[in-house]
Design brief:
12 strands, two-stranded antiparallel sheet, single chain, 372 residues, alpha+beta
Length: 372
């Protein structure tokens, strides 16, 4: 979803979901995702001292008798989350799109500002001219020294209703998505902690689906649609948390094991983030997930008839057609001009806007992989 495309209802509890980014690449400080939000985690047969837990954790977000928002929150989202994640309390400033301690840009961009140098994107190739797919020696989307205003974002103000683009059955003949959805931080994140990557919910609130859609390899007629388990997508948590980047084209997270509690991936293995993130995105954007051959195979959908593959991964997680390779999660500041304007349902005719969370100006993500 982009600006104007939101997903969800008031969340169950919570506090600071938007704290944690889920796009990848680069270097930065290690932090604990659910740590500051969790009061106790007492296992069977264990005893815990609670003298500091309630005041230090619960009271940071909740009020027992004087709450001002649902679920006994002392303020509504995103204001509550921003008490920490807008430059105070936490290093991850999701409003400005940067780490306030290191001044490095956040991988997921920012809701108001981002530091993506979409105009400076470049690549170096090893393949011959005119050959596609490109054999890349290096690909780089630099970071800016200072943020500029976002041109697309997931709207998380908790009040603005928009369209969740691509939501619904692939055979839907009319609708381009789910209308009148409202998104807030806790729609995607569970700040009380769930052991998942960036405390992402297996299925975001109001996603309109209890299962994610997984596309099998294409057949001679059409890509097969398969239903995954009803619990949604549980991406293993990163062993070391890195929230910042210096190259927005590097999206893998080699700190994520293939399975929870497993060993970190070796060079020939794909990390657990790249393996699962497209499936996670498609719990909301169900009609975007496409397998090999979808570019030449009629999906049977009136709007999303032929689709770019979006479920590919490899051991390096670099320059592969995966949702997160082209898009950031929170907000992008890249601009669209000329023929790049108005190419998607819901796009406006405003120059520079509707960047659809992309990483490169003027839909230049295409030529990051293709020589045309």
């Amino acid at each position: 979803m982009r600006k104007g495309s939101r997903a969800v209802k008031k969340l169950l509890l919570l506090g600071a979901g938007s704290a944690l980014m889920f796009t990848m690449g680069g270097v930065g400080p290690a932090q604990a995702d659910a740590g500051p939000h969790r009061s106790t985690a007492v296992g069977a047969g264990q005893t815990a001292l609670l003298s500091n837990a309630g005041g230090g954790r619960c009271a940071s977000c909740h009020r027992t008798h004087t709450a001002k928002a649902e679920y006994l929150l002392k303020a509504a989202q995103p204001a509550l989350c921003y008490t920490c994640h807008s430059g105070a309390g936490s290093d991850t400033d999701v409003v400005a799109g940067m780490d306030q301690n290191t001044s490095l840009p956040l991988r997921g961009g920012g809701f108001e500002y981002a530091l993506i140098d979409g105009a400076g994107a470049n690549k170096t190739v090893a393949s011959a001219a005119g050959v596609t797919p490109v054999v890349l020696k290096a690909a780089n989307v630099p970071a800016l020294a200072a943020g500029t205003a976002t041109t697309s974002r997931h709207e998380i103000d908790g009040t603005t209703a928009g369209t969740m683009w691509g939501n619904g059955a692939i055979s839907d003949p009319v609708n381009v998505g789910k209308a009148s959805v409202v998104l807030e931080c806790g729609s995607c994140h569970d700040p009380h902690g769930n052991g998942n990557y960036r405390i992402l919910k297996p299925v975001p609130n109001d996603a309109g689906t209890l299962v994610q859609t997984v596309i099998s390899p294409a057949t001679a007629t059409a890509p097969a649609e398969l239903s995954a388990p009803a619990e949604g997508v549980n991406i293993p948590d990163a062993v070391t948390k890195v929230y910042t980047t210096t190259n927005y084209w590097t999206v893998a997270d080699r700190n994520v094991p293939a399975v929870k509690g497993g060993a970190l991936p070796i060079a020939t293995e794909t990390d657990g983030y790249i393996t699962n993130v497209s499936q996670w995105c498609s719990t909301c954007h169900t009609r975007y997930l496409a397998g090999s051959g979808s570019y030449k195979t009629d999906s049977g959908d009136a709007t999303f008839t032929y689709r770019h593959r979006s479920n590919r991964n490899n051991s390096a997680g670099v320059s592969r057609p995966n949702c997160i390779q082209c898009h950031v999660s929170h907000g992008s500041n890249v601009s669209m001009t000329g023929n790049s304007i108005g190419v998607n349902p819901g796009d406006t005719a405003v120059v520079g806007a509707d960047s659809r969370l992309l990483r490169v100006n003027n839909r230049g993500t295409c030529v990051m992989c293709h020589n045309v």
